[in-house]
Design a protein that fits this description.
Blueprint (H helix, E strand, L loop, with lengths): L4 H32 L1 H4 L14 H6 L5 H10 L13 H17 L4
Helix pairs in contact: 1-5, 4-5
Bound molecules: heme C.
The site of heme C has 26 residues, from helix 2, helix 3, helix 4 and helix 5.
Length: 110
């Protein structure tokens, strides 16, 4: 095999792999969300504090539009939002944070 072709094919394979992993994470995140978060955040809304939705604009305004901000809040809780640190595995928290951020980017209208 040509010495340029081989690294090219390997990187394509690697990219495909990364995409597959991402898709699985979002699906797992959706599960975690419906079990643990939807009670207060159905449809990306907030049943307790109406301004603190999971929608793009609100996340931006409240500086919550990053994986690290969401993970921190899910682990530690904030005011009326319970802490999930002791209840969910780090992997679940990562997945649900990715899911929330990804969803917020898909419904940009609000
Ligand atoms: C008992 C209700 C409740 C549950 C369950 C809950 N939250 Fe929250 N969530 C809140 C409240 C209340 C706030 C606003 C906290 C504040 O800033 O005072 C909030 C805020 C947030 C924010 C920041 C939103 C913003 O615009 O600032 C994110 C992100 C979030 N929650 C994600 C989650 C995730 C992910 C889960 C599930 C693992 C979850 N929440 C479960 C009540 C809840």
């Amino acid at each position: 095999m040509n010495k340029f072709l081989k690294p090219l094919i390997l990187s394509i394979l690697l990219l495909n792999h990364i995409q597959a992993v991402n898709a699985a994470d979002l699906e797992a995140g959706a599960q975690v969300f419906s079990t643990n978060c939807a009670a207060c955040h159905a449809g990306g809304n907030n049943a307790i504090m109406q301004d603190k939705t999971l929608k793009k604009d609100a996340l931006e305004t409240n500086n919550m539009n990053s994986i690290s901000a969401i993970t921190t809040q899910v682990k530690n809780g904030k005011n009326a939002m319970p802490a999930f640190g002791g209840r969910l595995a780090n992997e679940d928290i990562d997945n649900v944070a990715n899911y929330v951020l990804n969803q917020s980017e898909q419904c940009k209208e609000k």
